[in-house]
Write a structure and sequence with these properties.
The structure holds 2 protein chains of 2 kinds. Chain A has one helix at 22-34, and strands spanning 2-13, 38-39, 43-54, 58-59, 66-77, 84-93, 96-101, 104-109, 117-120, 126-129, 135-136, 141-151, 156-161, 168-169. Chain A is mostly beta strands. In chain A, the strands form 3 sheets. In chain A, strands 1, 2, 3, 4 and 5 form a 5-stranded antiparallel β-sheet that branches. A 5-stranded mixed β-barrel of chain A has the order 6-7-8-13-12. A 3-stranded antiparallel β-sheet of chain A has the order 9-10-11, with no helix packed on it. The radius of gyration of chain A is 22 Å and the shape is elongated. The chains are: A mainly beta, B alpha/beta.
Chain lengths: 177, 486
């Protein structure tokens, strides 16, 4: 789920950037440092939307670097247990499949794939119903529910399921519903 | 929605990450805020409460269906793959029963009983396709590698001249897909490759590609090496550029459950259907019966040095193993024989055969009909020569071994020509052979020509140490060119 939140960060800036473009340089550095990263607490930072305030810079003893506290607003993405997401399948093997929903990778094990779908190995490994009406393979889009997450300092891992109603392959008129 | 931008972000810093409960609590808080409303709205609020209660009940039911989970079937990234809880640090069932299948995914583990079921399923599927399992070692079995700094300048010059100077059209193209750490890979003729990212020369054993192609029709193949993961993946790419033979079944040292030995516990199949090709016996302590020992492929001088051998390597002798009559071609025939015997004996879908029994039967045909007596091989104070490795090897190969010579003896195995038994052999026109003849039989899987293993005076060392047929590289290449143009 996406959130729009206000965060704070301390940026260190080298003296070579002190000048009329100081504020722009700070914003540039902020965007470079923060966009695309993940913190366990807030999730993946998708984009910085605005800078609220830039506090007074503090010169660090011993070096010429200056630390600026920046308050900024950004869009973050954090998956939750119980949330329903759409993802794209990236890898299928006999233990289950991996799907990606934006920056987060979700593993759906074969325990949480409906019993009528079985693994077919071959040139294109996939999970298929016995009448081949529904086939989940690499690059298929699936709707899944997050069953569990593990949140580290810098990474989020998710386990998902497609065993419930309305989950599974999307984009095929005969599937899912 | 106002719940999404509270200054203290309770939603995001809460320890529980259950989204539905979060929404519920926020909605309940909101409806409590609007408590001073007229009766009609109060009814609506009550309906809302009922709905919330139902939703909570449904949640509890959902989690009840996952309560079959305290025996967690497995973990990915430390999260149970069925119920989503984090792996507890101290499990009552003992986390020792979880087997890490790192070659499938680095963070993947399966519980012991689930793994057993998966192995049974795989076995049934593979046998249904009329295939068995084959586990292949890399170093000295399918290829030989040497670091650049171990290859001296004269050997490097020889390699560049004989193998890397081959015209472009004779070199098979190497598709993309090698791991990035391997860097640039320069292929040469004869299966020699120069790998820049790892500073390695690698020479594939002649017939390797053809062997894999033919074996893949009969076996589901695994690579199992004691090397590092990146090395294993790079070598697998050289042997199998399109990935169709191994399909990611590459096991390296860190995937193995034990650091110093190899085990079939992470191979998804059953011990009765797996054959192993390796040059070292000691590294498979629990599965000697499944093992087919291959003769070591010593291409680079460093390989001979590593094993303390004084004999020249193939580069020194300017030779290479023969393609069609070398070690891999021989072992392929053996594998084909074992495969056909297995499926012939179990025609129905029951597959009660054991590949280990079939292998020992095939092995015992090699020297069947031979009766051997030994001279000057065992020390005189040796109490039980039947327990020595050489005797046991002869028995495995199907020969009958006796201590005293009589008329039915066919071979005398000796190290000295002038012993009583040796002289007796000469008189009665029996074969007099060096013990290397027995080892050759073991490597070649056929009865070798006795005349190639004479007992020479003053020479107790084996006349040859490799038994596979080798050919001169230039001659062989010219012959191949001529064959192609004809």
């Amino acid at each position: 789920m996406f959130f729009h939140i206000r965060l704070e960060r301390n940026l260190q800036l080298h003296p070579r950037f002190f000048g009329p473009q100081l504020r722009d340089k700070l914003v540039e550095k902020l965007i470079h440092d923060v966009e695309g990263t993940c913190s366990g607490r807030h999730g993946f930072v998708v984009a910085v939307t605005g800078v609220d305030t830039i506090g007074k810079g503090l010169i660090r003893d011993g070096t010429g670097y200056v630390t600026f506290p920046i308050h900024y607003q950004c869009v973050v993405f954090r998956p939750f247990k119980g949330e329903i997401l759409e993802g794209v399948v990236t890898l299928v093997n006999k233990m289950g499949f991996f799907a990606e929903a934006g920056p987060v990778q979700i593993f759906v094990s074969n325990h949480l794939i409906p019993d009528d779908m079985s693994f077919q190995s071959g040139d294109v490994p996939c999970y298929e119903t016995s009448d081949s009406s529904v086939r989940i393979q690499k690059d298929s889009e699936v709707r899944l529910k997050i069953v569990g997450t593990r949140v580290d300092a810098t990474e989020i891992f998710c386990i998902g399921t497609i065993k419930d109603d309305f989950l599974g392959l999307i984009g095929d008129p005969t599937a899912g519903a | 929605m106002s719940i999404l931008t509270p200054p203290s972000s309770p939603a995001l810093s809460s320890a529980s990450d259950d989204f539905a409960l979060l929404l519920d609590s926020e909605l309940a808080a909101e409806s409590a805020d609007e408590g001073s409303e007229p009766a009609a709205n109060r009814e609506e609020a009550e309906d809302l409460d009922d709905e919330n209660e139902e939703r909570r009940k449904r949640l509890r039911l959902d989690s009840a269906s996952n309560s079959s989970c305290p025996p967690h079937p497995g973990f990915m990234w430390g999260v149970c793959i069925r119920c989503g809880v984090l792996k507890p640090n101290s499990e009552p069932g003992g986390s020792a029963s979880n087997v890490a299948l790192k070659y499938i995914h680095e963070e993947f583990e399966l519980a012991g009983d689930v793994l057993a079921r998966v192995r049974e399923d795989e076995l049934r599927q593979v046998l249904g396709k009329r295939k068995l399992f084959l586990v292949l070692d890399l170093d000295h079995t399918l290829l030989n590698s040497a670091r650049w700094m171990e290859v001296f300048p004269d050997e490097t010059a020889y390699l560049e001249h004989t193998y890397m100077n081959v015209p472009e059209d004779k070199i098979p193209a190497l598709s993309n897909g090698a791991p990035a750490v391997a860097g640039v890979i320069q292929p040469g003729g004869g299966g020699l490759h120069r790998i820049h990212g790892m500073q390695l020369w690698t020479k594939l054993r002649p017939f390797a590609h053809k062997f894999l192609e033919e074996a893949s029709k009969l076996f589901e193949m695994y690579v199992y090496t004691m090397g590092e993961r990146m090395y294993a993946v790079t070598m697998a790419h050289l042997l199998d550029p399109t990935g169709k033979f191994f399909k990611g079944r590459v096991i390296s040292q860190r995937d193995s459950t034990c650091r110093q030995t190899k085990d079939l516990d992470i191979v998804l199949g059953a011990d009765s259907a797996v054959l192993i090709l390796d040059d070292t016996e000691a590294v498979w302590p629990k599965h000697r019966a499944n093992l087919i020992v291959m003769e070591r492929y010593h291409f680079f001088q460093s390989s001979c040095r590593q094993f303390g051998l004084e004999n020249p390597s193939l580069t020194k002798a300017e030779r290479d193993e023969s393609k069609d009559e070398g070690a891999l071609a021989n072992v392929l025939k053996v594998l084909q024989r074992i495969h056909s015997d297995f499926f012939m004996e179990s025609d129905d879908s029951r597959y009660t055969c054991d590949v280990r029994d079939i292998t020992s039967v095939v092995r015992s045909e090699i020297l069947s009909g031979c009766k051997l007596v030994f001279s000057r091989i065992f020390p005189t104070d040796c109490l039980e020569p039947e327990l020595t490795p050489l005797w046991r090897l002869c028995v495995d190969l199907g020969a009958e071994c006796v201590l005293a010579h009589d008329d039915s003896v066919t071979h005398v195995v000796a190290l000295d020509r002038f012993t009583d038994k040796a002289k007796w052999a000469k008189e009665h026109r029996k074969f007099l052979v060096h013990p290397a003849w027995v080892e050759a039989a073991h490597s070649l899987w056929r009865r070798p020509n006795e005349l190639e293993f004479p007992v020479r005076e003053g020479q107790t060392r084996a006349p040859v140490f490799t038994f596979a047929k080798t050919v001169n590289v230039e001659v062989e290449r010219n012959r191949e060119e001529k064959d192609q143009t004809n």
